[in-house]
Design brief:
Layout (H helix, E strand, L loop, with lengths): L2 E2 L6 H6 L14 H14 L3 E5 L5 H13 L4 E6 L14 H9 L4 E6 L7 H4 L3 E6 L7 H9 L3 E10 L3 H4 L6 H8 L5 E2 L15 E5 L2 H5 L2 H6 L10 H14 L2 H18 L3
Parallel strand pairs: 1-7, 2-3, 2-5, 3-4, 5-6
Antiparallel strand pairs: 6-8, 7-8
Helix pairs in contact: 2-3, 3-4
Bound molecules: S-adenosylmethionine.
């Protein structure tokens, strides 16, 4: 079997969430999903964690609490493209993470807002051994960021993908992370049945994989997946920034596949 199960670790969420005064819809992960994430942290005990897609920061708080309970001296970086919390512009992205930081002074957590993750690598450093990707879920979304961050991930780094079944739960076009999980090459993938989210024995909404030599060797497959219809078209300055980054780290075939995906999707959308 390719997909392995992870032992769930529920305590961190139960401990920290009541203390930081989360509104009822926070964090954006269910109990099962948080326990899956904390279970992976418990198994792999990463030292350098990158979270892309911070939002209010409820999940960051759970990551902080997990590392504190495990007694692992980790550095945690949480990035959001937007300074304002996307569901309430009067609040800052990561405001719940800041509250958790006050309660967990020994845990290193840095919040970085207003730029793409790879644009902050100078400030954060690379060598991440754990990545959580949870951003827009529509094409091209997380695939663009994963490809840009992969060069800064260690071999054996764990990549956690949230909302891999979002197409069934909220909006039907939110399937980027499932496409990534399915198109990436890895000998170790994690995904297990969740009976919670849809109240039926069901496909889970979270999964993960481990970076190995073949992930990098066969990365063209992920670039190739980018041609599948884009739901939004990033502005040219973003497209160019990603291209510049890919050109530094990947071969001509990958860059060609990226350019081709843009051309196909501009044609679909009728842009020049
Ligand atoms: C679904 S929410 C994240 C939920 C959060 N991980 C949680 O569990 O509570 C998505 C967040 O990703 C941010 N975002 C969108 N595109 C991004 C990108 N390319 N890089 C970083 N953050 C991004 C949005 O501003 C939003 O705050």
């Amino acid at each position: 079997m390719l997909y392995q199960e992870i032992e769930l670790f529920e305590n961190p969420r139960d401990v920290i969430i009541p203390k930081i005064g989360c509104p009822p819809n926070e964090p954006e992960m269910t109990k099962f999903e948080s326990a899956f994430l904390s279970g992976l942290l418990k198994k792999f005990k990463p030292k350098r964690i990158l979270e892309v897609g911070l939002a209010a920061g409820g999940t960051s708080a759970i990551i902080m609490q997990t590392m504190d309970m495990l007694g692992v001296d980790s550095k945690i970086f949480s990035v959001d493209l937007f300074k304002e919390f996307y569901l309430n512009k009067e609040l800052e992205s990561g405001y719940l993470a800041e509250k958790a930081k006050e309660l967990l002074p020994d845990v290193y957590h840095k919040r970085l807002l207003g730029k793409l993750a790879f644009e902050q690598v100078n400030e954060m450093g690379g060598d991440f051994d754990f990545l959580v990707l949870d951003t827009v879920h529509t094409m091209p979304g997380e695939i663009l960021d994963f490809l840009a961050i992969l060069p800064y991930l260690k071999n054996n780094a764990v990549v956690v993908l949230h909302d891999i079944c979002c197409n069934a739960i909220s909006k039907d076009r939110m399937w980027v992370n499932k496409l990534l999980l399915s198109s990436v090459t890895s000998n170790t993938k994690f995904m297990q049945q969740d009976i919670g989210r849809l109240n039926i024995k069901c496909h889970p909404n979270i999964g993960a994989f481990v970076i190995d030599a073949n992930t990098r060797k066969y990365i063209s497959d992920v670039f190739s997946a980018l041609s599948i219809t884009w739901i939004y078209m990033p502005e040219d300055n973003y497209l160019n920034a990603y291209r510049e980054e890919y050109s530094k780290h990947y071969d001509d075939e990958c860059v060609w596949l990226y350019d081709a995906a843009i051309k196909v999707n501009k044609k679909i959308k009728g842009c020049k």
